[in-house]
Amino acid sequence: MNSTSPQFKENARKAMADAGLQKALGTAKGAFLQRRANAVANLPEFEQLRNTARDIKNHTLANLDFYLEKFAENVERAGGHVHWCSTAEEARATVLEICRKANAKTVTKGKSIISEEMGINHHLEEHGITPVETDLGEYIIQLRGEIPSHIIAPAFHLNREDWEADFRRAHTDLDPDRVFHERRDILTEARTRLRQKFLAADVGITGANFLIAETGSSVIVTNEGNGDLTQTLPRVHIALASIEKVVPTLEDATSLLRVLARSATGQDFSVYTTFSTGVRRKGDLDGPEEYHVVLLDNGRSNMIGTEFQEMLRCIRCAACMNHCPVYGTTGGHAYGWVYPGPMGSVLTPSLIGVKEAGHLPNASTFCGRCESVCPVKIPLPKLMRHWREREFERHLQPSGVRTGLGVWAWFAKRPGMYRLASRWGIGALGWLGRKKGAFRSLPLAGGWTEGRDLPVPQGRTFMDEYAKRQRAGAGR
Q1: Where are the beta strands (DSSP E) in 213-289?
Q2: Within this chain, do residues 283 and 417 fall inside the same structural domain, yes or no?
Q3: pLDDT tens across 60-109, in order?
Q4: Which residue intervals define the domain LUD in the entry (predicted)?
Q5: Element spanning 196, H or E
């Protein structure tokens, strides 16, 4: 899919002016925050579990080649096939080849954010194969021709009335007098429409929350059961995953599952947590005749051994974006690619380049909430600063920004001049704004005053006030 990340500022302005989006964001984000807070409060060992989860991921990344090979060996032992894909193009071609060999006309899909990165849906459609999203949010997004705006709640940006309008537009045989009173009514309608799709599908495609090296299993978590139907009813199951999804053992996977649902939706566990290992065995009541795992690198191996390796710990819970004030204001589509929010601000430049995605690591208040809630303790603000450093080193920022930073750096390296300039600046602004209270516009501060007033400074500089209080304390 094409990235619009370079247009983040323009995207953000449109998002903030979209009344429907702002309503949806205001309604949805509070629920995620409260549920997570309750789930964490009810588990005294949650902080210890975060440390365990971080250590599991760090160990795996340090030995990634070994665990990937072990995983592939056990998948094949269970009758499955592993396909190693360096790029999204290779992954698309691999999925298409598997579907063609199965003579597939319809493919059902369980929610998979990695399939968005691969661009699977459009590729299958171009070759005469119909992909059908079966997650309720993804189904609505597909009807609208959009991409997800959130990695676990794809239709986060929509209101209930939007959902109903989309159903009526797409399902032309709906009774016009039928009223959708709540989300459950929409879910029932979707299930009715999708039932035949599940039964008719030749191939089912799911993502994978974890890949277990010890057993060759893939793990998916859902709350609707669509993932199970997608991978057990068709003759062929394809699991899509990026290489960092592997974990060493079943015990490691269960440790990570304990922090995943709590961080994502505030549940102890998702309604469905499904482990799939290989093809249908003799005596099994269901399961696929073919099991394929498509492993995507797409730039991730280049992150190993760099300052960005910690980003590969991510387990896609979306806690960072649920708590991010920038995401909470702009929504996910403003980020212009698959991965929004703080995790996207670090991962997207890693995958498509900082030249394309340089605005994203700058779209942060650095409040630190993302790091404080991350279940695997990824230092997201630090990683965003590293991308800002890369952007500066490569002269990708506007000349005005670079000049401003250069002027600030000159003073910062000379403490005496810095303090003198600060006193002069604070005093001048205080005098100029003494009758205003706030500046609505100010030369060289348009980036601030365009969106908000700049309060008139009151009193002295912080350093002068601090020194005064220190002296007062010493004299007691």
Answers
A1: 217-222, 236-242, 246-247, 272-276
A2: no
A3: 999 999 999 999 999 999 999 999 999 999 999 999 999 999 999 999 99
A4: 68-296
A5: helix 183-200
User: Backbone phi, then psi, for 139, in 5-degree steps?
Assistant: -60, -45
Q: Could you tell me the pTM of the whole model?
A: 0.89
Distance CA 330, CA 364 (A): 12
* Number of domains observed in the structure of the chain: 2
Among 271, 298, 325, the domain boundary falls at 298
Residue 13 in any domain: the answer is no
The DSSP element (H or E) to which 106 belongs, if any, is strand 106-109
Residue 127 DSSP one-character state: T
List all residues 6 or more positions away from 175 whose beta carbon is below 8 Å from its beta carbon.
Answer: none
Closest CA to 327 of 363, 371, 351, 366: 363
Task: Give residue 284's domain range.
Answer: 43-298
Name residue, tokens 């695997």.
376
The beta strand positions in 134-278, using DSSP E, are 203-206, 210-212, 217-222, 236-242, 246-247, 272-276
CA distance 39 to 375: 13
Task: Return the amino acid letter for 274.
Answer: T
Q: Which residue has the tokens 């990026």?
A: 242
In angstroms, the CA 348 to CA 356 distance is 9
Rounded to whole angstroms, the Cα distance separating 244 from 146 reads 27
Whole-number Å distance between alpha carbons of 336 and 60: 30
Rounded CA-CA distance 342/383 in Å is 10
What is the Cα–Cα distance from 379 to 453, expressed in whole angstroms? Answer: 31
Work out the angle at residue 125's Cα, subtended by the Cα atoms of residues 120 and 130, and round it to the nearest 5 degrees: 95
10 Å CB burial of residue 284 (0-12, 13-18, 19+) is exposed
**Residue appearing with tokens 């690198």:** 297
Beta bridge partners of 295: 84, 241
Asked whether residue 168 is assigned to any structural domain, the reply reads: yes
Tell me the pLDDT tens digit for each residue of 385-423. 999 999 989 988 888 788 888 888 999 999 999 989 888
C-alpha to C-alpha distance for 108 and 110, rounded to whole angstroms: 7
Question: Which of 267, 298, 329 is the last residue before a domain boundary?
Answer: 298
Is there a domain that residue 447 lies in? Answer: yes
Q: How far is CA 118 from CA 44, 132, 309, 365, in A?
A: 39, 16, 21, 30
Helix, strand counts (H, E) of the chain: 22, 12
276 forms beta bridges with 218
- The kind and range of the H/E element at 228 are helix 226-232
